[in-house]
């Protein structure tokens, strides 16, 4: 698979790079970003953290706004940030141009319904295709972590819960915890997966955690001034499901913080250390 370099910027002694490639899962060209810390030039294979962004984002939001690169350089952590949906000519979008469905809103699942199923397979892309590409082209070990924000927090949780052994660490900022039971999730799942709600269950963290074979400790930060917390994100649903399942969850409700990247930047260091500790063990 050919990678075309889009941009390259030195940062904290390492390199932030963007690449374009043809995705076979998504049937379109995709761009992803990778941060290569300085240690990547010393010949050793490094652990890798996959970051999944939220609604309306691309590969750029996290890399530009989260303030993660200084500590990633110090810890020797490679960070990979994919886009949040398929893109480009021929990829269908919300008919009304809404920001919470279609382009920028792939929900990290594999769509089964038309016209979405041909392109909207972000789960396969994030779990299989992108890691294979990254592992073939960059000095990464098989020590993988996954994190994300909001829709991307949902993505990180389901990718980890559905794939025991694939990830060694997981965390999320303000994740959509129970998409079966929130407006964003109901809108996306009914269109991508159809009206049969039983088919939605395999994409919901609160359902998956009940039967998880592996109990990777989950770190979640959630701002209590987040306008989406009560109606969309529902951290208490994840807390209840984790307690019932005996799944280790650290849920930190952060006073005064909203849903923005100002919040993420405030706690990203804790998440990077959470991942580095597990990935380097
Ligand atoms: N455009 C919307 C707001 C959309 C928004 O808040 N997106 C969040 C993720 S929400 C859940 O997945 C985000 O990360 N935005 C990008 C950023 O750089 O802040 C509106 O107008 O309300």
Automatic annotation (TrEMBL):
Transmembrane regions: none
Catalytic residues in the record: 150, 226, 259
Source organism, top-level taxon: Bacteria
EC number(s) reported in the record: 3.1.2.12
GO cellular component: cytosol
Gene Ontology molecular functions: carboxylic ester hydrolase activity; S-formylglutathione hydrolase activity
InterPro entries the record matches: AB_hydrolase_fold (IPR029058), Esterase-like (IPR000801), S-formylglutathione_hydrol (IPR014186)
Keywords, alphabetical: Hydrolase, Serine esterase
Gene Ontology terms: biological process: formaldehyde catabolic process
Catalysis: reaction(s): S-formylglutathione + H2O = formate + glutathione + H(+)
Pfam families found in the cross-reference section: Esterase
Enzyme class: hydrolase
UniProt keyword Transmembrane present: no
Function: Serine hydrolase involved in the detoxification of formaldehyde.
Sequence similarity: Belongs to the esterase D family.
Name used for this protein in its record: S-formylglutathione hydrolase
